[in-house]
Amino acid sequence: MTGRRGALVRRWGGRAVGLTITAVGLYIVLPSLLTMFQAWPQLSTVDVPWFFVLLALQAGRLVSLWWLTKLALAPARVGWGTTATAQLAGSAAAKVVPGGGAVGGVVQARILIGAGQPSGTVASGLGAIALLQNAVLFLLPILTIPALLIGPPPAKQLQLGLVVSVVLATVIVTIGVTALTWPAVLRTTGHGIGRVVHVVRRRTTPESVATGLLTQRQRIAEGFHGRWLRAVFATAATRMFDYASLVAALVAFDVHARPSEVLLAFVVSQALAIVPITPGGVGFVDLGLTGMLVLIGVPTETAVIATLLYRLFSFWLPIPLGLFAWTGWRISRHYSRPMTERAGVDPTVPPSGTGCVECEASGGWWVHLRRCTQCGHVGCCDTSPMQHATAHWRESGHPVITSFEPGEDWFWDFTTESGFLGPTMCPATEHPLDQPAPGPAGRVPDDWRDHIHE
Ligand SMILES: [Zn+2]
Ligand SMILES: [Zn+2]
User: What are phi and psi of 55, to 5 degrees?
Assistant: First the structure.
């Protein structure tokens, strides 16, 4: 009896605590949130072109984010539409459901897995994205230190913030790629930070910080399968488009401030968004951002209205988009034809063999294997040197492949460029477990990494 009650408390207790914190949090921020929304009519004083600038910058942020997701999921390709739907729906869920961060992740993962992505890839991919984004966020304040030390630039021209965002993006990419390419750099940095932290916190040692950093690096590297130049670039772009939006919102109200200080305000508000007190940090982010802007010398009234303008585009606008995307996804799943009737899929045709047909004939090798769901042709993936699976589609017109790798069951339609959940194919649904990837044994050269397509 006690055991059952214990389980119940464990199951619902955490949720009750979460809901209480959310309720209290909303109660605290509601008055200031209402004050902010009362500033709404003042938005009509903004010159119309600024709305388009903000719209374009936020669109840039979203596209970079979708690109980043695609990079993390690359081994099993996923279309832009699915990636966008999953991200928009996930972020909308995170904002409307209490304790939303986790719910948002689940919604996003469910859509991606429903589109035929292996669940392991989705989990490690989304984890790597979060890690990389937070790493870049915490790198930003460090980058502003030189600017703050040097002192105020001659003219307090905030428009420069747009240039600053481009420069920062370049710096972030350089630092990020250096840290990911040469682990030794990260180890030395970790030791350095550890030594400083050790003074304040005895339990932290230089070695533990270095090991922690290297573990994170390993997770990011695995999540992105070595495509980190593009991954870091996409992450830098998401953050910098967002920062540029804030700058634009301020410039729209003729605010004069230092770009470096606005960057600090931006970082603080983004960090507040990670703290799960209210869904998506609503209220706390707005309060924090307004407060930071006042702190750097923006008049209170302008700080309130500029925050409202920035949040309108970065926070509120994507919510209806996400709900729309989610509804559309559910409807399309409901009405999509049963997969067995799908053109190009015949579950009764067995695979042609255990290796790529053309590679076996020519003595070549491959990275991963794909099975044509129409004639059973086994071909090599697009990472492989010869890309025979895609070549088979071009020659025969057979539009669908499924993975021939152990543990993977995704389907890919070349014509619609999208993945889907297919029927159970007749065996064998994977190559023999003792056959390595890349394979086959004995034919893969030592320098195979130099021969593959990324
Ligand atoms: Zn091949
Ligand atoms: Zn075929």
Answer: -60, -45
